[in-house]
Amino acid sequence: MQSLKTRLTTGTLLVIFYLTLLPFVLHGFGMVWTGMSQGESYLFVPDASVGNAAMIVHIIAGTLLVALVPLQLLKPIRLRFTRFHRTLGASLVALALVTALAGMTYIPLRGTIGGPVMSVAFFLYGLCLFTSALMVARMALSGDRAGHWAWGLRLFWLALGSWLYRVHYTLWYLLTGGLGSQPDFLGPFDLVQNFAFFVPYLLAVQIWIARRGAAHQGHLVA
Ligand code: HEM
Q1: Which domain, by its residues, includes 141?
Q2: Cα separations in angstroms, 91 against 33, 68, 200
Q3: How many separate domains does the chain show?
Q4: What is the mean pLDDT of the chain?
Q5: Spatial CA neighbour of 166 closest among 23, 18, 8, 48
Q6: Which pairs with CB-CB distance under 8 Å and at least 24 residues apart come from 67-74?
Q7: Which amino acid residue places its CA nearest to atom 32 of ligand 1?
Q8: How far is the centre of ligand 1, averaged over its atoms, from the C-alpha of 144 (Å)?
Q9: What is the mean pLDDT of residues 192-221?
Q10: Ligand 1 center to residue 81 CA distance, Å?
């Protein structure tokens, strides 16, 4: 049973997360509407149906993914509602695969607003998300609990990547007024951001996993 303090902290974090996610979700749905009604946006090009459809599918799947993924880590749900955990897990894997595949279809067709560096970085991000989703499913099916936990953590932080990208930009603009960021996304801050919303988080997860593994080994030896 979780302590009241843990439950309050988790609840507060969830409220903050969903409040900051709301504008992003509204923007995403706005973009989907623009794409479906053939409105004007640099993301949609007249008579280029594959790229347009890929972006619409990408935004729908990605938005659902980022909105649902925090629920998968909530311990009380995981322990008490096993079937819900499995169903949500399978849905998250499917959403991650679709989000990544649609994004990786769009990039070679249209590129990105930030040019080649952003295209390479986002394609790499898509590959990481795709691989993590496959590995989470594989570990769950083979009953490898440690592997499932490690890949689940990677998938969690990658699924939040798109939100983290916006959070980084928002905080940076609030703190510095946008120092090193340009409208063409070629400023030094933009170039670093192309990778900074997922690579450092993956490294931190890797260190966390290694330390937990070492602690577990020590526990077995002692
Ligand atoms: C994880 C959840 C994700 C969500 C919620 C999400 C959401 C979005 C949204 C709302 C847009 C439209 C941006 C705009 O209006 O300017 C977008 C664009 C884009 N996304 Fe994602 N995305 C996610 C993951 C990914 C992944 C994994 C990739 C890599 C394959 C990716 C690649 C792209 C690309 C290339 C664009 C167009 C960038 C541009 O030129 O402006 N996204 N995404």
Answers
A1: 4-221
A2: 23, 9, 26
A3: 1
A4: 93
A5: 23
A6: 67/18, 67/21, 67/25, 68/92, 68/95, 69/155, 69/156, 69/159, 69/160, 70/14, 70/17, 72/152, 72/156, 73/156, 74/10
A7: 103
A8: 31
A9: 86
A10: 32
